[in-house]
Design goal:
By secondary structure, the chain is α/β, with parallel strands linked by helices. It has 11 helices and 10 strands. The strands form 3 sheets. Strands 3, 4, 5, 6, 7 and 8 form a 6-stranded mixed β-sheet that branches. Strands 1-2 form a two-stranded parallel ribbon. The chain has a two-stranded antiparallel sheet with strand order 9-10. A hairpin with a 2-residue loop joins β3 and β4. The mean pLDDT is 94.
Length: 327
């Protein structure tokens, strides 16, 4: 038996659609609170997230890159991207979209322009980009500059003495797995995770879980990102879930090593590894006056709200005494 046999064998699309709780959902809830419940499962497409996905794919699933991404040949100003996104929902080529529809979507853009001027400007600026996007709706469209920047990070990771060993092929004694997915339960609440890199050493009987992080800030500043994005949740959740899965398998005697973050900055290209040795701890953790809330508590609270369709946070009733809230 190989470790990959323990993985949840689904594609990434099926993984993302699964209703189980993940690190990203718990982290977003911790950030947004009760008011953000309706936003937790909405996809975000920031440039930093896209760049992270590109590097992940090129490093761990390069053969699938062309099935996921498309490098656009035409350019479009960032200010006009929202207009393009809305027009794409028509499913029509640009010339086939009624002018009235284009004007409605672009009503807040250059409101001082006459309609004919606005239509001409949009046609000259976005029509080629729009049609290209329409022909690649099943791909994530990226720019050549974005790809080149991500490729520089990829080469830095592959060539660095610190990180190159994480991107080598498996052998009989050393299994290297990428984008390995797992699914389980905590107190009967479904949870899931997808580990960027897992290295299983069959001689030493160890399992190393690592996550690849890209950034625009220097690698030595990673602790700030660790706090900002609640990476403690990721490290402890992944470790706990994978530990529960191997507990009833042939790998129950294997030791899971402290969680590792493999960090590369697109600006400094000096990869380094950060080790989190508190990934096995339970309960809230305080580091440098920062409190990291146990993911189990976050999960239990969030699941309780969603299961009950709560309309107010815990502790709030129909009739409340202000004195209870005044310290």
């Amino acid at each position: 038996m190989r470790f990959k046999d323990l993985c949840w064998n689904v594609d990434e699309c099926s993984y993302r659609k699964d209703a189980s709780y993940s690190y990203s959902i718990l982290s977003k809830y911790l950030k947004l609170g009760f008011e953000g419940l309706s936003q937790l499962r909405k996809n975000e497409e920031t440039q930093s997230l896209i760049e992270g996905s590109i590097v992940d794919c090129l490093m761990t699933d390069a053969d699938n890159f062309d099935n996921i991404f498309y490098i656009a040949k035409h350019k479009c100003p960032d200010s006009l991207i929202p207009i393009v996104e809305i027009l794409l929902s028509t499913g029509q080529y640009y010339d086939a979209i009624p002018e009235s529809s284009i004007l409605t979507v672009a009503k807040n853009w250059q409101s001082n322009y006459k309609d004919e001027t606005k239509l001409k400007k949009l046609n000259d600026t976005i029509s080629e980009y729009y049609n290209e996007r329409l022909e690649h709706l099943n791909h994530r469209c990226i720019t050549q500059g974005m790809f080149d920047s991500c490729m520089a990070s990829v080469m830095a990771l592959k060539n660095s003495k610190v990180t190159s060993e994480y991107f080598t092929s498996s052998t009989e004694d050393r299994e290297v797995l990428y984008q390995c997915k797992f699914k389980g339960r905590y107190n009967n609440i479904p949870i899931r995770c997808m580990a960027d890199i897992i290295i299983v050493d069959y001689k030493a009987k160890t399992i190393q879980i690592s996550d690849l992080k890209t950034s625009s800030r220097p690698e030595y500043s990673f602790y700030d990102s660790f706090v900002k994005w609640n990476y403690d949740i990721q490290a402890r959740l992944y470790t706990a879930l994978i530990s529960s899965i191997i507990a009833n398998s042939e790998f129950k005697e294997f030791t899971i090593l402290p969680f590792q973050f493999i960090v590369v900055s697109k600006n400094t290209l000096n990869p380094c590894i950060w080790i989190y040795d508190k990934c096995f701890e339970k309960g809230d953790i305080v580091i440098n006056t920062t409190t990291f809330v146990d993911w189990r508590n976050i999960l239990t609270e969030l699941n309780g709200y969603e299961a009950s369709n709560a309309t107010v946070p815990n502790g709030i009733k129909d009739i409340n005494m202000l004195s209870e809230f005044i310290k």
